[in-house]
């Protein structure tokens, strides 16, 4: 099910926001970032927003996703940039306020017993055409 991510606001006094889910939750979660924009009160300065997460080796990595400036680019559409929680949004430069919005999808894992039904029987496997090597 999709839920609206009400978003967060990054400012000079609140430089980061972490979105996380309950560690005991066995569902798969996706957080999609749709838009990053400067809001009322922003100065004409560069505001750099980073996404901080973990790579496949569990090392923290920070990636800039937006560089906003009131006079030339006050808003950026990120086309549902998908992230896996936990993830932190950080205002790396500037004083904001910068608003982030998107959605959160929860995919409940089904009971593992259905996976047995997906296996092909021996008769069905024999009916499949053999894989032929590519012609050179």
TrEMBL record:
Start and end of every Nucleoplasmin core domain?
7-105
Q: Give start-end positions of Acidic residues composition bias.
A: 114-128
Domain of life from the UniProt record:
Eukaryota
| UniProt-listed SUPFAM superfamilies | Nucleoplasmin-like core domain
Any Pfam family hit: Nucleoplasmin
Which molecular-function annotations from GO does this UniProt entry contain?
chromatin binding; histone binding; RNA binding
Q: Where in the cell is it found?
A: Nucleus, Nucleolus
Which Gene Ontology terms describe the biological processes this protein takes part in? chromatin remodeling
Q: Name one GO cellular component term.
A: cytoplasm
Q: Which UniProt keywords apply?
A: Acetylation, Chaperone, Methylation, Nucleus, Phosphoprotein
Sequence segments annotated as region (Disordered): 114-136
What job does the chain carry out? Plays a role in the regulation of diverse cellular processes such as ribosome biogenesis, chromatin remodeling or protein chaperoning. Modulates the histone chaperone function and the RNA-binding activity of nucleolar phosphoprotein B23/NPM. Efficiently mediates chromatin remodeling when included in a pentamer containing NPM3 and NPM.
The subunit field of the Swiss-Prot or TrEMBL record says: Interacts with NPM (via N-terminus). Forms a pentamer with NPM at a ratio 4:1 (NPM3/NPM). Two pentamers form a decamer.
Family listed: Belongs to the nucleoplasmin family.
For this entry, the protein name equals: Nucleoplasmin-3
Q: Name the species this protein comes from.
A: Pelecanoides urinatrix (Common diving petrel)
């Amino acid at each position: 099910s999709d839920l609206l991510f009400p978003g967060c606001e990054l400012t000079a006094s609140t430089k980061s926001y972490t979105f996380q889910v309950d560690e005991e939750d066995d569902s798969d979660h996706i957080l999609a970032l749709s838009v990053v924009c400067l809001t009322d009160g922003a100065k004409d300065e560069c505001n750099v927003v980073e996404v901080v997460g973990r790579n496949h080796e569990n090392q923290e990595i920070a990636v800039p996703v937006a560089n906003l400036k009131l006079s030339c680019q006050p808003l950026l559409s990120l086309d549902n940039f998908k992230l896996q929680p936990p993830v932190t949004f950080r205002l790396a430069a500037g004083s904001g306020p910068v608003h982030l919005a998107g959605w959160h999808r929860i995919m409940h894992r089904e009971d593992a017993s259905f996976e047995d039904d997906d296996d092909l029987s021996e008769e069905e496997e024999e009916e499949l055409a053999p894989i032929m090597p590519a012609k050179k």
